[in-house]
Amino acid sequence: MKGVDAVIPDIIKDAEHRMDGALEHAREEFGAIRTGRAHPAMFNKLLVDYYGSPTPLQQLATFQVPEARTVLISPFDRGAMAGIEKAIRDSDLGVNPANDGATIRLVLPQLTEERRKEYIKLTRHKAEEARVALRNTRRHAIDAVNKLVKDKEISEDDARGAERQLDALTKKHVDVVDDLLKAKEAELMEV
User: Fold this and answer.
1) Greatest pairwise CA separation for the chain in angstroms
2) What is the pTM (predicted TM-score) of this model?
3) Considering the domain 40-107, what is its CATH architecture?
């Protein structure tokens, strides 16, 4: 059995690891939200039917962004072109792929003011989901600390100290989510 001194740091380290995971998930979610500029992260969630199995688009092609609103997709296997085109057409990106036989060209339309507002609303929703995940992680860690107090493995003072550490950790991670949200909103409002 671990010593009492090692239990609280383990709980805090586990909470930090989970919070870091929630932040990384939020970054991925924000990256998938389309802005006025083209970037390869827009295609992170697209799956292509590749010889009968759903395969992430990132594994089937390379991406180039020659201009702010243009993406060139070069499939490794030309047999995947039709599947890639279908996946892009069926996605919520709102683009129509043009195929020249070797590459697929996408020209992203300019975002309308209404669409920008929808994306901002979606971004705020994703940020709130991340904050909820962070608060849930904090609550689970505090529950674990309180169980240790109840089982008389640690003192009330140790529990209060752990709670202060968890509060600081949560605040630090929530601040990062807020910064990500501000940056994404600014990016969405650029014309």
Assistant:
1) 71
2) 0.72
3) 2-Layer Sandwich (3.30)
